[in-house]
Write a structure and sequence with these properties.
Largest sheet: none
Number of helices: 4
Radius of gyration: 48 Å
Strand content: under 5%
Shape: rod-shaped
Distance between the termini: 147 Å
Helix content: over 70%
């Protein structure tokens, strides 16, 4: 009596089939392939070596291109972030006055303070005179 196949056995046969389908030809198989096409053994060996070198170059160059593309994308993101930060700083600097404007504001405020200090005694004397006139005019004891 046969035992039923276990699920692991089915998985093993599938994995064996995948390994067989992914198996690369051996160098001797490649040489025999080119010999069947009519090449001499030495020419077939050279052709196999050329094919392997070309495949190696393609694999290496594709991995370099993928990594350089990733680097370009990350560099572009970094540049965009820096550009955004610079735009914010530039906007802040444009709203603030420069050295010339600051100096002009200082001169204007100094002149204003000097003017106020020159006028202040006259203003206080005028307010004092108004106050005393109102006080004397409303004081009942000063009426004769």
């Amino acid at each position: 009596m046969k035992q039923p196949a276990t699920p692991n056995a089915a998985e093993e046969t599938k994995s064996e089939q995948k390994q067989k389908s992914k198996k690369f030809p051996t160098p001797s198989e490649l040489i025999s392939h080119y010999q069947k096409r009519g090449l001499e053994p030495a020419e077939a060996s050279i052709k196999v070596i050329e094919d392997l070198q070309n495949a190696l170059v393609r694999v290496v160059s594709s991995s370099r291109n993928a990594s350089s593309k990733d680097k370009l994308v990350t560099d572009a993101r970094k540049i965009d972030a820096i550009n955004g930060r610079l735009a914010v700083v530039d906007a802040k600097l444009e709203t603030k006055p420069g050295y010339v404007e600051t100096f002009a504001l200082g001169l204007a405020s100094g002149a204003t303070l000097n003017g106020i200090s020159a006028v202040w005694p006259h203003v206080t004397r005028g307010i004092g005179q108004i106050w005393s006139a109102v006080r004397i005019g409303t004081d009942p004891s000063s009426t004769s």
